[in-house]
Structure formats: structure tokens, C-alpha cells
């Protein structure tokens, strides 16, 4: 049985990618929740994760004696172990595009990720308007994301980025969540894609668990001092 270590569902965007990928694909796994209480070496989170991971981060996937400690590596491992799930597009060109889009998310869009931290439970539309007005980096990241999504949806026919659900949609699910939380402006076809992602059973299950946590963690709340 696969075991996936994750952090708080309300805040942990990297955990969401791996969890949604497995859940939406119908791959059985055991969830190991490790609460965020700090990221210094003495925190319970770091002590717990240091026992199983060389980086002491989440997500982390265990498959027997195999340990995978990076979200993109997890996606590749799962796609390799479960080829019948077709987690990457079958067409070679589409598969290359999907891997490129995922890699771009994995290593980029730092302005958006820094300014608009994931917070599923919160309504931060007012803060989103300020960020959009004042943060050119966020606007630039959103311009690139929007252009990419429009191109892929047009090329592959939707409703997912490559027609059917793939690693790419799992990877961009937290971006969709951020756009919803901060009410960042997007064109109609992008709003429709975000709604399709939001309604995926795997995403709905993650959101339901995030809302049920009721765990206010100040270090993950840059815009609120209390719920």
C-alpha cells in the first residue's frame, strides 16, 4: 500500500498536488498527516519528517522500501507504476507539452506563490485586489498562466488542459485554488477551467477535508491575525 505524507490541507499546495493526483486517478493509498507547527529544526513537523525524508518536507510517498520525496518525482513514479491510469497524455507531443507545463509550475511562478499563499478556507478577495494592483510579478505570472491555459484548452479541446485529467491538472489545482481565494481576474474560458478543476471529485474531497480542519496556523496566515 502506498503511503503519502502530507501537511495541512488548507495550506499545503505541494501536498495537494500529489494527493489529488492519487485520489482523482483512483489509486489506493494511506494518508499520513503531519501538522504544520513550524519549519525550524526543533518543530514537531521537522522532527517527524526528518525520520522518513532526507529533506524533511511534504509531500513524501513511500512504497514499501521505496521513498520519493519530491512532488514531481512522485507524479513520475506513480505514472510509471500505474500506466493504465494514463496520467500523462498518450500522444508524444502532448506528453512533452504536459511535462513542460508541469516543470514550469514546479520551478516557477514564484511571485504568485509568494504573494498569494494557498488558503482554501479564507476569502481574501480584498487582499487579492491590493496584490493585483501593486504586485507586477503576480500580474506577470498570471499573464503567463492564462496564456498557457488558453492555448492548451484550445489545442486539446478541454475541459482539462490536455482533454482528460492528467498530472498537469493536479499540478495546477492549487493555482486554481489561489485564484478563487484571492479572486484574481481571469477571462471567461479560464474561469470555466477553474470551475471544472474545482468540481473534480479528488479536488472536492481535498477541499472538504481542508474546511474540516479548523486549524488556524499563524505562520501560514500572512493577511489574517485570526479566523
Automatic annotation (TrEMBL):
<protein>
    <submittedName>
        <fullName>Glutathione S-transferase family protein</fullName>
    </submittedName>
</protein>
<dbReference type="InterPro" id="IPR004045">
    <property type="entry name" value="Glutathione_S-Trfase_N"/>
</dbReference>
<dbReference type="InterPro" id="IPR036249">
    <property type="entry name" value="Thioredoxin-like_sf"/>
</dbReference>
<dbReference type="Pfam" id="PF13409">
    <property type="entry name" value="GST_N_2"/>
</dbReference>
<dbReference type="Pfam" id="PF13410">
    <property type="entry name" value="GST_C_2"/>
</dbReference>
<feature type="domain" description="GST N-terminal">
    <location>
        <begin position="2"/>
        <end position="86"/>
    </location>
</feature>
<dbReference type="InterPro" id="IPR036282">
    <property type="entry name" value="Glutathione-S-Trfase_C_sf"/>
</dbReference>
<dbReference type="InterPro" id="IPR040079">
    <property type="entry name" value="Glutathione_S-Trfase"/>
</dbReference>
